[in-house]
Q: What sequence folds into this?
């Protein structure tokens, strides 16, 4: 197995710039090679993707259990004698740890007594857990994590507040008003003022615009879901492009320290001064599906070169909603997206109609139910320069020269 997780990012590879019409973005500070790790970033905040209450029709065995601190997969079902739990938590989703180190870190930082008490209180709010959607319950988890961050690391909380997202959209304010009615009743510690509804709306917007999903392992049967969400101080500056030149890798269950780090690798060579972009989801979705998702989830319409070409195509068969892609984060893979994906076989015969067919042939994984993005292995430690790794299923493939 190739050890990519522990390889370091290239120093001074990226610079932050203000881009007309796009806000802040990350640029190549020098010529970059395919496979180079240009950013390795640790999250400033993580939180569980599970609702506060599991629905009655869903069995406990259908959920995996993850370490609250490092998000590693533990077991199917509940805790065992090899794990540590928080004695104050009423549910293992809120307080189960894979080892003594994670337990110690969590109790002193992310899983403080206040956070434990807050989650227990919210779980007992029947209006929230019985009558509201899973999304609202996960938002409540996020707000607890964010306000807990403000208590143990004020500087990190200020970094969170500096990210894009101003909470001005109507839907976010509606959610903020509802959730604030519960948050305002939490027993905040002495000296910490109860946050305003405007602050809650702003935080929800930061989450909407900047959170990345930490995914369950790939399965050939499809249905890859999110175990937790993470927000990164530097990684949040990557803008979207429907034909990205970089992609994100994570190795959550494979490593030890830093297993929730975001690792950004170049897909191909780029010159100095070019913007480095990710795709916020699978690249093989059709134009109407991509546009709808970007507008609904991120509040903008994409005008990248690919979208300009595909805007002139006929999409009469693609006007339905993307029913399998219901998560807000980058490169999340559903199980039944075939009807929403672009068929590229034979398309490269007419580059005028589909000038980006080469990208799909070379950089999109063809494994069944995958559709991930391929990037070369880092050009170091003797790695062969023609081996490509998929950022979804992890398969290695020799590049066809």
A:
């Amino acid at each position: 197995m190739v050890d990519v997780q522990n390889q370091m990012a290239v120093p001074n590879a990226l610079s932050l710039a203000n881009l007309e019409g796009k806000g802040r973005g990350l640029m190549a500070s020098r010529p970059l090679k395919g496979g180079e790790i240009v950013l390795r970033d640790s999250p400033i905040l993580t939180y569980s993707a599970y609702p506060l209450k599991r629905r009655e029709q869903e069995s406990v065995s259908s959920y995996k259990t993850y370490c609250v601190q490092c998000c590693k997969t533990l077991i199917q079902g509940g805790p065992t004698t090899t794990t540590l739990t928080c004695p104050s938590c009423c549910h293992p989703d809120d307080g189960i740890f894979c080892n003594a180190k994670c337990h110690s870190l969590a109790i002193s930082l992310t899983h403080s007594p206040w956070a434990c008490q807050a989650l227990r209180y919210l779980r007992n709010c029947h209006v929230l857990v019985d009558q509201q959607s899973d999304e609202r319950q996960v938002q409540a988890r996020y707000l607890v994590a964010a306000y807990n961050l403000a208590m143990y690391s004020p500087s990190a909380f200020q970094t969170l507040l500096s990210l894009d997202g101003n909470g001005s959209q109507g839907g976010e304010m509606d959610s903020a008003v509802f959730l604030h009615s519960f948050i305002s009743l939490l027993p905040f510690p002495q000296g910490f003022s109860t946050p305003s509804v405007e602050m809650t709306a702003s935080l929800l917007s930061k989450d909407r615009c900047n959170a990345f999903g930490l995914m369950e392992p790939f399965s050939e049967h499809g249905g890859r879901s999110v175990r937790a969400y993470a927000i990164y101080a530097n990684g949040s500056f990557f803008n979207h492009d429907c034909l990205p030149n970089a992609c994100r890798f994570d190795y959550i269950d494979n490593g030890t320290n830093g297993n929730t780090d975001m690792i950004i690798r170049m897909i191909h060579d780029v010159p100095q001064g070019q913007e480095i972009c990710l795709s916020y989801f699978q690249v093989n979705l059709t134009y109407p599906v991509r546009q709808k998702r970007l507008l609904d989830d991120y509040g903008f319409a994409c005008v990248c070169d690919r979208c300009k070409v595909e805007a002139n195509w006929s999409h009469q068969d693609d006007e339905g909603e993307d029913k399998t892609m219901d998560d807000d984060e980058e490169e999340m893979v559903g199980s039944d997206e075939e009807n929403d994906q672009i068929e590229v076989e034979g398309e490269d015969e007419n580059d005028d109609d589909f000038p980006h067919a080469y990208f799909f042939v070379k950089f999109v994984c063809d494994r069944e139910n995958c559709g991930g993005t391929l990037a070369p292995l880092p050009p170091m430690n003797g790695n062969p320069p023609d081996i490509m790794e998929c950022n979804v299923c992890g398969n290695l493939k020799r590049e066809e020269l």
The longest helix spans residues 134-152. The mean pLDDT is 82.
